[in-house]
Design goal:
Layout: H1 3-19, H2 22-49, E1 54-60, E2 75-79, H3 88-94, E3 98-104, H4 108-111, E4 115-118, H5 124-144, H6 151-158, E5 167-169, E6 175-177, H7 180-214, H8 217-221, H9 227-259, H10 262-267, E7 269-270, E8 275-276, H11 285-295, H12 299-326, H13 334-337, H14 339-354, H15 362-367, H16 374-381, H17 388-416, H18 426-433
Parallel strand pairs: 1-2, 1-3
Antiparallel strand pairs: 3-4, 5-6, 7-8
C-alpha cells in the first residue's frame, strides 16, 4: 500500500468517525433549525405575549388633553372626569377589568406632570403612549400660541428627511445598489462563521489526536503508516467533515429561500433603477430595500472566497492544533499548548470588527495578507468589492503559509506523538523543529 492509499484510508476513517455519529447528524440538522427559530422566535413570542386589550380610564382636570390620548391594539380609553380624584379609588376598586387610571392635572401646561394609578407596575407601552400623545398635543398648542398663521405647516414642510440611495458603478458601466450597512452585516456574519468553523474543527483535530495518544491507539496506527501520513489523513478527514457540514447548511438555506420565494423576488428587482419590479408579489418598502441589497451582492464570488479561506485557514490552524495535541497526554493539558492559536483567532476577529469602519485602510489590508488573520479579516472586506489581485495574493500567501506550517507541524507531530509522561514545554518544541 503506497503513501496515497494510506492517507486516503486514514481520511475516510476520520471522516466516518465524526460524520457517522448520530450526534453529528442531529446537530447538522438542528443548527439551521435552531438558527431559524432564533430569528423567528421574537416575532412569535411577541404574538403569543400579546394579550387582551386593556381598559384605561382618564380623569382630565385640564379639560384639554384627555381626548388626545388615542387607543391602539393594546389599550382603549374612556373618560371618567366627573368621578374626580377623590372618588377614583372607590371607582377603581369596583371596576375589576380596569387596568389603570390616567390623571391629567389642571396645571399640566406648566408642570408637565401626568399621574398613572394601577394595581400593578404600569406597562411601558402605556407609559410611552400617554407620553407621546400628550407631548404632541402640548407642542401643537404651544406652536399655535405664537399666533403665526400656518406655523405648524411651515415647520412640517421645513423638515427634511433624507433617504440615501448608494449606487456603485461596475466596470462595464452598469449601476448596482451598494448598502454599507448590509455590507457590514454580511462581513460580520462571514467573519464570525470563519472564526467559528476554524476554531470548531481545529478543536476536533486536537481532541482526536489527544484521545488516540491517551488510548495508545496511535502506537498501532504508526506501525502501519508514517506519522506524517497519519497527520495529513487526520487533517484532511476532519476538513471534509467541515466542508460536508457547510454544504448541507447551504442546501438548507437554498431550500428555505425557495420556500419563501426570496430568489424569485430578487430576480424581479431592477437594482439599476433602484425600483422593484416584483410581479405578482406584494411586499412593503422595507422588504423591497432588503431584497435590492441582496440582489446587489455577488454571492458566487463571496461564497467561493469563503470556501477558499475556510480551507486555507483550517489547514493552517488545523496543523497547529494537531501539533499541539501531540505534545500533551491529557485533554486538559491541551489548553496551554493552544493558547497561541486561540490568541491569533481572537485577534483576527477583533481586527476584522475594527476594520469595518475602513475596510480599505492599512490595518485591514495588511491583516488580510497576514495568513494568521486573513481568513477572518478578508471576510469583512469582501462585501466592499476587494480587487481580484488582492484576493489572489492573499489566498496564495495563505495556502503557502499553511503548507509551511503543516511541514513544521509534521516535525512536532512525529516527535511528540509517541512521547508520554512529559509536560508541555516550548523548549522541547523548539528542539523538535530544529
Amino acid at each position: 500500500m503506497n503513501s496515497f492509499n494510506r492517507i486516503s484510508l486514514i481520511t475516510r476513517h476520520e471522516f466516518m468517525a465524526i460524520a457517522g455519529k448520530k450526534s453529528f447528524i442531529v446537530m447538522t440538522i438542528l443548527v439551521p433549525l435552531i438558527s431559524l427559530a432564533c430569528i423567528g422566535m421574537p416575532f412569535l413570542m411577541a404574538k403569543i405575549n400579546k394579550g387582551d386589550v386593556e381598559t384605561v380610564a382618564i380623569i382630565d382636570q385640564s379639560g384639554k388633553y384627555g381626548s388626545a390620548i388615542t387607543a391602539n391594539d393594546e389599550f382603549r380609553f374612556h373618560d371618567i372626569t366627573p368621578v374626580g380624584t377623590t372618588g377614583m379609588k372607590d371607582f377603581y376598586a369596583q371596576q375589576e377589568n380596569l387596568y389603570a387610571i390616567v390623571v391629567i392635572p389642571a396645571d399640566i401646561d406648566s408642570s408637565l406632570n401626568v399621574d398613572i394609578y394601577s394595581r400593578n407596575t404600569v406597562r411601558s407601552g402605556l407609559q410611552s403612549l400617554v407620553t407621546r400623545c400628550i407631548e404632541d398635543t402640548i407642542t401643537q398648542a404651544r406652536i399655535s400660541s405664537h399666533n403665526i398663521p400656518q406655523l405648524r405647516k411651515i415647520i412640517d414642510e421645513s423638515r427634511a428627511d433624507i433617504h440615501l440611495n448608494c449606487v456603485k458603478w461596475d466596470e462595464d458601466g452598469s449601476e448596482t445598489r451598494a448598502d454599507s450597512d448590509f455590507a457590514e452585516f454580511i462581513g460580520i456574519i462571514l467573519a464570525f462563521l470563519t472564526y467559528m468553523f476554524v476554531m470548531m474543527y481545529g478543536a476536533m483535530i486536537l481532541t482526536s489526536v489527544v484521545e488516540e495518544k491517551t488510548n495508545r491507539i496511535v502506537e498501532v496506527m504508526v506501525s502501519c503508516c508514517r506519522p506524517v501520513e497519519l497527520l495529513l489523513g487526520k487533517i484532511i478527514g476532519v476538513g471534509f467533515v467541515g466542508i460536508a457540514q457547510i454544504a448541507i447548511w447551504a442546501v438548507f438555506i437554498g431550500i428555505i429561500s425557495a420556500i419563501f420565494g426570496i430568489g424569485t423576488a430578487m430576480s424581479g428587482i431592477d437594482v439599476t433603477q433602484g425600483q422593484a419590479a416584483l410581479a405578482a408579489t406584494d411586499i412593503d418598502m422595507e422588504t423591497e430595500a432588503i431584497l435590492q441589497s441582496l440582489a446587489s451582492v455577488n454571492f458566487v464570488e463571496i461564497g467561493t472566497c469563503f470556501i477558499l479561506y475556510f480551507i486555507g485557514g483550517y489547514l493552517l490552524y488545523g496543523s497547529m492544533f494537531a501539533a499541539a495535541g501531540s505534545t500533551v497526554d491529557q485533554p486538559n493539558e491541551g489548553s496551554q499548548a493552544t493558547v497561541p492559536m486561540m490568541m491569533f483567532l481572537v485577534l483576527a476577529l477583533w481586527v476584522g470588527l475594527a476594520c469595518m469602519e475602513n475596510p480599505d485602510g492599512a490595518l485591514a489590508w495588511w491583516c488580510s495578507m497576514i495568513p494568521f488573520t486573513s481568513p477572518v479579516v478578508m471576510m469583512v472586506r469582501l462585501p466592499y468589492d476587494v480587487a481580484l489581485w488582492e484576493i489572489t495574493l492573499s489566498v496564495i500567501i495563505l495556502f503557502a503559509s499553511a503548507l509551511g506550517i503543516a511541514i513544521l507541524a509534521g516535525r512536532i507531530y512525529r516527535k511528540g506523538i509517541l512521547l508520554y509522561g512529559k509536560k508541555f514545554s516550548w523548549k522541547n518544541i523548539g528542539l523538535w523543529l530544529k
